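Appendix B, Record 12. Input sequence as logged:
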Amino acid sequence: MRVLGIESSCDETAAAVVEATGPGAWQLRSSVVASQVAIHREWGGVVPELAARQHLRDIVGVVGQALDQAQATWAGIDAIAVTQGPGLVGSLLVGVSFAKAVGAARNIPVVPVHHLAGHIESLVLHNGELPYPAIVLVVSGGHTSLYHLPSAGVYQLVGRTRDDAAGEAYDKVAKLVGLGYPGGPIVDRRARQGNPHAIAFPIPKLTHDAREPGPATHLPAGFESVLKRRTDFSFSGLKTAVRRHVELATDGGARPLTDADVDDICASFQRVVVQTLLDRTFRAAEWFDARAIGIAGGVAANAGLRAEAERRGAAVGLPVFVPSVALATDNAAMIAAAGLRRWESGTRGAVLDFNADPSLSL
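Logged structural output:
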């Protein structure tokens, strides 16, 4: 079975063809991504109207390239998977409208997909089926969420950010130290040159019940809220601490930061982010007696996060799964994979019975 994936939730127009050779056994046949980073860089972030217009310009060509690379025709496509949400509504509408139009014209079933389900299933696309139960951290510019997967295709939210997403914090810190947009890859590169212990930025801590729950699969009444508080994230305080440090280091902007200053700020900031993300992820893995940990989303491409996750996993005997760097950032291969997962679970899709949903929950 071959599925065409379409992704247009933010500022990448993407299409891919993925072929299933069995349940959870998926082969990537093609993947094309048209990035808009150059367009939005001068604005310091994504401009929704510009993003939607560029999707309109790119989508036909991107889909055509994906079919060509896979040596496929429309007659060989068994289903279309498209990102339904969450995301920017104008951007989502481009992909959803295209998928529904082609599906109606060619009588191809269309499967709506949650963007974060795509990130989760990118782990399976790259590594093969995960051992279950698993804990998966989805961390990107717009999302920081923690999911318990008791079995394939079942996603239970156990933690989320209360304010900024981790990737959003990276972008804001990059702007504070004059590194530009997008901040994540730039901060990661500069962090490798700095001293991660140069600056004692605070570790975000959330108030919680002092009682320790047992395994999360056997939580007594009332402990669900305890688990949630102890696996939620917050990065607004860390962002404020970085801003205050920069103000002091520059005498309120009277002098510029040196390259060494920037490297140390990036390294110290990244150390705290990585520790925060992994503390909660490994805590949840212990409570749920997980057999594996996964890290997905754009920030999963971060070298510091990947290295520390693997180190911690090895220390406690837990395998840690990450996608390839190409599958970590937004792409359509992960959407095709999530569509295949829904298809395998019995969701066969229809052509016109759904709409783009910028606030779609998983």
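The longest strand covers residues 12-22.
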